[in-house]
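Retry 2 of 3 after timeout on previous attempt. Resubmitting structure tokens to design endpoint.
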């Protein structure tokens, strides 16, 4: 099959947004201001340092480079403590099934995430063995919407960009995949993910047969 799939992690395969939210909220509160659920939504797919910069801006606080590094590691230590207790219960609907079905047809599978903690999350949720390639925040220098993360994933899979299907829940991620010339399946709400060729609520809403049909239609 001429299909390779690249999955975003947070918000597509697993639900870690709630932990990012708790850890950022704790950090904001320790600095004397609040952090809302709506603000957390805006940080989906955004790198750790950029997230911190946005939060400090919302709180009206300026910090030196060294202080920002320290705040980011503090948040990360809280976040890592939380994700260290994750279980397979935190897989989002349909993730396990689509990975199993893709494996069964011999499709190549990669991870394309902004997170520097992807290895731990995959391990805790039992997904590591599905991936032929893992590209995350440790390997990339430019974040989504730059296509680097997905281009690297395709290279590692030995796939051409146009044969790749990207599953993404963040607008920046959808834009990155489009910039790479890949087919994008948005995961979430249509109005939040303009540009995606198809939008589904979660991975349980698409079968491999449908995916292959859509891809073939596209390239005909
Ligand atoms: C994820 C999350 C973002 C988070 C980023 C960096 O991206 O959606 O909210 O800020 O990773 O995570 P970390 O602090 O663990 O390096 P993705 O691309 O997997 O959705
Ligand atoms: Mg995401």
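Retry 2 succeeded. Sequence:
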């Amino acid at each position: 099959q001429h299909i390779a799939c690249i999955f975003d992690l947070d918000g597509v395969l697993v639900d870690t947004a709630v932990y990012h939210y708790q850890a950022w909220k704790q950090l904001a509160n320790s600095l004397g201001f609040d952090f809302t659920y709506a603000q957390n939504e805006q940080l989906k797919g955004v790198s750790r340092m950029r997230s911190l910069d946005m939060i400090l801006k919302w709180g009206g606080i300026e910090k030196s480079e060294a202080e920002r590094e320290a705040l980011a590691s503090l948040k990360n230590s809280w976040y890592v403590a939380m994700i260290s207790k994750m279980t397979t219960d935190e897989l989002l609907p349909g993730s396990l099934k689509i990975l199993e079905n893709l494996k069964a047809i011999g499709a190549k599978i990669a991870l394309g995430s902004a997170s520097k903690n992807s290895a731990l999350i995959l391990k805790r949720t039992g997904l590591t063995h599905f991936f032929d390639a893992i590209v995350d925040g440790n390997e990339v220098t430019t974040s989504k919407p730059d296509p680097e993360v997905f281009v690297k994933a395709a290279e590692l899979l030995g796939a051409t960009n146009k044969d790749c299907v990207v599953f993404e829940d963040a607008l920046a991620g959808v834009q990155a995949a489009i910039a790479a010339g890949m087919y994008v399946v948005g995961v979430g709400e249509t109005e939040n993910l303009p540009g995606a060729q198809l939008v589904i609520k979660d991975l349980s809403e698409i079968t491999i047969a449908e995916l292959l049909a859509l891809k073939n239609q596209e390239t005909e």
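Attempt log closed. The pocket of magnesium ion (ligand 2) is lined by residues 8, 10-12, 44-45, 169-170, 173 (CB under 6 Å).
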